């Protein structure tokens, strides 16, 4: 978008796979400032109503914003370099200058020992994909979710992940819509999906439930289950309940699922499970707090680990974090075409 787009014309960019806006030059709205003033008396300028910043961070309509028209065209070229020429071809393979067997030792130490302490998923992604290849889309909207295109071993891939440093990586309505739209786009153009999972669940609350989180979450579940591209999943830490199910789980036809030793795959966290499963036992204990902690640790050791999940078939392999890149490349090569 190199200029204003108002009224019914705004539907034209909204129907496309990628919307790039030029800052302070592109505007998009169905009802312009003049109409709003005439109907409501409210005075608002075009930038505040539908500028690039609004659609990047508030509405989620735009995917990328740039500073100039030249940047917009260059960004479009870069985006297209990840895609095939049409929807029946395979995405382009580019011989990677990055070592295919590269292992990042830092990944083995990136997950904090304390389960409630955040880390930055963007750093995980950057250390696994081909150097400098990650093109993140919608980076300022629903920041608890990450989507973007990258190359891993020269293969074009779609990256979907949670960001534990934002809202602990929970999935809310906007995050579900963001990931759903991206998964469906990748499926349309035969781009394999690589999903990194660390989510304690869906965002609880009346506003989310009344806003239709079930409906929006179902879109994500459907998008993953419908996708026929190769699907590879890496569970880095928390994979709880409904968030685990919708995030490229085995139930949805994922081809390969890897888990790091820090992975926790369960219906809910150990503390929550102990409160529900052993409520009477905790209440009748001489020291409820100590008993709750003991039962939570017992539940965590028995169920909240990747080894139990692997024994039931939900995980194909438990790997060291530093092995992620070569393992993903091997899986992509096996699933190519």
Q: In one word, what is the shape? A: globular
Could you list the spans in which at least 5 consecutive residues all have pLDDT below 50? none
Q: Report the CATH architecture of the largest domain.
A: Alpha-Beta Complex
Mean pLDDT, as a whole number? 94
The helix tally amounts to 15
- Using the coordinates above, name the CATH class of the largest domain: Alpha Beta
Précis, in short:
Strands 5, 6, 7, 8, 9, 10, 11 and 12 form an 8-stranded mixed sheet that branches. This protein has 15 helices and 12 strands. The model has no long low-confidence stretch (mean pLDDT about 95).
Explain what this protein looks like in three dimensions.
- By secondary structure, the chain is α/β, with parallel strands linked by helices.
- It is built from 15 helices and twelve strands.
- The chain has helices at 11-14, 33-40, 46-50, 52-57, 69-80, 121-128, 173-188, 206-210, 213-226, 241-246, 270-277, 279-283, 288-302, 306-311, 324-335, and strands at residues 4-6, 20-22, 27-29, 64-66, 135-137, 145-152, 155-162, 193-199, 231-240, 256-259, 264-266, 317-318.
- A hairpin with a 7-residue loop joins strand 5 (135-137) and strand 6 (145-152).
- Helix 7 (173-188) packs parallel to helix 9 and helix 11 (270-277) packs across helix 13.
Please render the helix and strand layout as text.
Blueprint: E1 4-6, H1 11-14, E2 20-22, E3 27-29, H2 33-40, H3 46-50, H4 52-57, E4 64-66, H5 69-80, H6 121-128, E5 135-137, E6 145-152, E7 155-162, H7 173-188, E8 193-199, H8 206-210, H9 213-226, E9 231-240, H10 241-246, E10 256-259, E11 264-266, H11 270-277, H12 279-283, H13 288-302, H14 306-311, E12 317-318, H15 324-335
Parallel strand pairs: 1-3, 2-4, 7-8, 8-9, 9-10, 9-11, 10-12
Antiparallel strand pairs: 5-6, 6-7
Helix pairs in contact: 7-9, 11-13
